[in-house]
C-alpha cells in the first residue's frame, strides 16, 4: 500500500490537527521520500515509519511537537540535519537497520538538544572501533545508545513499564478483590458468631431470669400455702381451746 493511502486510512475521519500518534509501518514510499505528511500534523508526538523504503528525509514536514520517531529498517544513509530543523523536540530516534556508516553522518544530530535515546543497531557504523565511546562523546545529550547507557545500564522501556503497570493493576485488582471478599466473609462470620454468641448469652440470661421468676413464684406459692396452713393450725388450736373450756364447764 502506498504511504499516502495508508496515512489517509490512519486518519479515520479525523483531521491531521487531531492526530497525536501515527503508525504507517510496512507501507511503500514510491520514490523513497516521505509522502502524505504535511505541516497540518502539528500535534503529532509519535511517528512510526518502519520498513517503508525511505532513502531520504528531505520531504519530512515541520513537526514541532514530535518526540518519538521510528525509522528503522529503511535505506537512509544521510540527510539527518533535516531532523534538527523539522523535529527540534525529538527525545527518541530509532535509525536501526539503515545505511548509516560514518560518524560524520550522525554528527548532524548534535542540534537535537533534547535527544536522550538513539538507536543505530544493525547499521554499519556500529562496527567502527570504539563506536559507543565515540557516539557518546559526539552527542553528549544522548543518555541511551542502542538501548544502553555509557555504563551499560539498560534503558527503561516505557511501553513495557506501562504494560507492567496495567498487568499489576489487573492482577492486583483480582487478589485484592478476593481479599476484600474474604475479609467480608470473615467479618461476616465473626459478626455472625458474635451475634450468635450474644443471642445465646441473651437467651441464657433470659432463661436465668425465667428460672428466677419461676423460683420466686414457687416461693410465693409456698408462702401462700404456708400461710394457709398457719391459718388452719390457728383455727384448729382455737377449736381445741373451746373444746377444753366446754369440758371444764
Structural features, described:
The chain is α/β, with parallel strands linked by helices and 249 residues long. 47% of the residues lie in helices and 7% in strands. The protein contains five helices and six strands. It has helices spanning 3-11, 81-86, 103-106, 131-138, 158-248; strands at 21-23, 46-48, 68-70, 92-94, 117-119, 144-145. Strands 1-2-3-4-5-6 form a six-stranded parallel sheet. Helix 2 links the parallel strand 3 (68-70) and strand 4 (92-94). The N and C termini lie far apart (151 Å).
Q: What structural keywords apply?
A:
249 residues, Leucine-rich repeat, LRR (right-handed beta-alpha superhelix), six-stranded parallel beta sheet, 5 helices, 6 strands, globular, disordered C terminus
Strand-helix topology:
Layout: H1 3-11, E1 21-23, E2 46-48, E3 68-70, H2 81-86, E4 92-94, H3 103-106, E5 117-119, H4 131-138, E6 144-145, H5 158-248
Parallel strand pairs: 1-2, 2-3, 3-4, 4-5, 5-6
Low-confidence segments, given as residue ranges, are 159-184, 186-200, 214-219, 241-249
SSE order, one letter for each helix or strand? HEEEHEHEHEH
Task: List the total number of helices.
Answer: 5
Overall 3D shape: globular
Radius of gyration equals 48 Å
For this structure, what is the CATH homologous superfamily of the domain at 3-145? Ribonuclease Inhibitor
Task: Report the β-strand fraction as a percent range.
Answer: 5-15%
In which range does the helix fraction lie?
Answer: 40-55%
CATH topology category name of the domain at 3-145: Leucine-rich repeat, LRR (right-handed beta-alpha superhelix)
Amino acid at each position: 500500500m502506498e504511504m499516502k493511502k495508508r496515512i489517509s486510512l490512519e486518519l479515520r475521519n479525523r483531521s491531521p490537527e487531531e492526530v497525536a500518534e501515527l503508525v504507517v509501518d510496512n507501507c511503500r514510499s514510491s520514490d523513497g521520500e516521505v509522502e502524505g505528511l504535511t505541516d497540518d500534523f502539528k500535534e503529532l508526538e509519535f511517528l512510526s515509519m518502519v520498513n517503508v523504503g525511505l532513502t531520504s528525509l528531505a520531504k519530512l514536514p515541520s513537526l514541532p511537537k514530535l518526540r518519538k520517531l521510528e525509522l528503522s529498517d529503511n535505506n537512509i544513509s544521510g540527510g539527518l540535519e533535516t531532523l534538527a530543523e523539522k523535529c527540534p523536540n525529538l527525545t527518541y530516534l530509532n535509525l536501526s537497520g539503515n545505511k548509516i556508516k560514518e560518524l560524520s553522518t550522525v554528527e548532524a544530530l548534535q542540534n537535537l538538544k533534547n535527544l536522550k535515546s538513539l538507536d543505530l543497531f544493525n547499521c554499519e557504523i556500529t562496527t567502527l572501533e570504539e563506536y559507543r565511546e565515540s557516539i557518546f562523546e559526539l552527542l553528549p545529550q544522548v543518555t541511551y545508545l542502542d538501548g544502553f547507557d555509557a555504563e551499560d545500564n539498560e534503558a527503561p522501556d516505557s511501553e513495557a513499564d506501562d504494560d507492567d503497570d496495567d498487568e499489576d493493576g489487573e492482577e492486583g485488582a483480582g487478589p485484592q478483590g478476593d481479599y476484600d471478599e474474604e475479609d467480608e466473609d470473615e467479618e461476616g462470620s465473626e459478626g455472625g458468631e458474635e451475634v450468635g454468641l450474644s443471642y445465646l448469652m441473651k437467651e441464657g440470661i433470659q432463661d436465668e431470669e425465667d428460672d428466677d421468676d419461676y423460683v420466686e413464684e414457687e416461693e410465693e406459692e409456698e408462702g401462700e400455702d404456708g400461710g394457709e396452713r398457719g391459718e388452719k393450725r390457728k383455727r384448729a388450736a382455737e377449736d381445741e381451746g373451746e373444746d377444753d373450756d366446754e369440758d371444764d364447764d
